[in-house]
Amino acid sequence: MNFGKQDVFQNGERFHGYVIERLLGNGGLGAVYLVRHEMLDTRFALKVLFPEVARENDSYVKRFLREAKIATRIRHPNLVAVHDCGYDEARGLYYLVMDYVNGGDLRQAIAFAGRFEPDRAVEVAMQVASALEAAQTLTGGHRDIKPENIMIQPDGLVKLVDLGIAKSEDVKDSLNTRTENVFGTPAYVAPEQALDAAAVDTRADIYSLGVVLFEMIAGKPPFEGPNAPQILAQTLSEDPFPDIRDYNPNVPPMLAALIRRMCVKERDRRISGPTALLREFEKLGYRMERPASTEIRYSKDVENAPTHLSVKSVLNRLPKDGAASEALSFETDDDEIRQFVTRLKRRRLMRKVSVALTAAAAVIATLVSIWLVS
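Given the sequence above, the corresponding structure tokens read:
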């Protein structure tokens, strides 16, 4: 679903105690604005969901609010904090007020730099892993790690954004719907995530982060194609993940091996999670200052936090029917991707049946020959 880019606000316009300064980003589902709090004279990022999107399916609203509810519960240097959310009756507009990251996203940084030095790329990846480590207690995984969701401040501090796609046990009853479709972005999605979103855990994030690390160092993602199905075909093929040294020979062999371990296509052979990944980086001599665990735990009084109360009040507006399906999928070519994945599942099933029948026939033939001999 894509409703096209829209101008929701004009510069200088006032909105719920904030002054709109300028547009930061505009996509198919919503937009982000730089705003200034009129009383505090402090800058924030205002994220809005286009009214047409909210009217089309309330699952988009639930994802939007899930981001606020999860982010309220965690404070970590590498996660963007959400301070408030609400619904504007006059505009039919859902909005979040978040930290403003005075920098650009990793996609812009890669476009500017061409490619990163391996040490700098690892520094970024470790900060993302630290954010995932802090959030995994609540979310179980981000599920959409990609350069656009990784912000970099001028001082080098990395901020992971968009926790709305994450699954949280604490908010499942009020925000998650019964069924889950494929999540993620084709170039970064883990194989198991493309086939069955219900089977996804934090190892899918490790895969996606490995792809991002690969792209930072190589200057291009490992799998490319003119459309999403062609990219997915490479991800889901039985071919091994590419060696980063084929693209950048200056990568240390041990780092190249670690990237391939992050991106092993068989989930059970992959590095198990962000904590394990950080340990692997440290074994290679990489270090980063990590906050103590007490600094990343969410407040026990979160139920009375302003953002949490705001989420509750907005949730009361939504239909109570929990049977609606989750409409989120890949960002482009949704129908084509679903058809491709369905065909792939069917081929894999037929291959498994064929292998099983061949094995059964072999066993029967062996038993028959033994019986005849005896």
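Confidence is low (pLDDT under 50) at residues 165-182, 291-300, 322-333. Try to locate this feature in the token string yourself.
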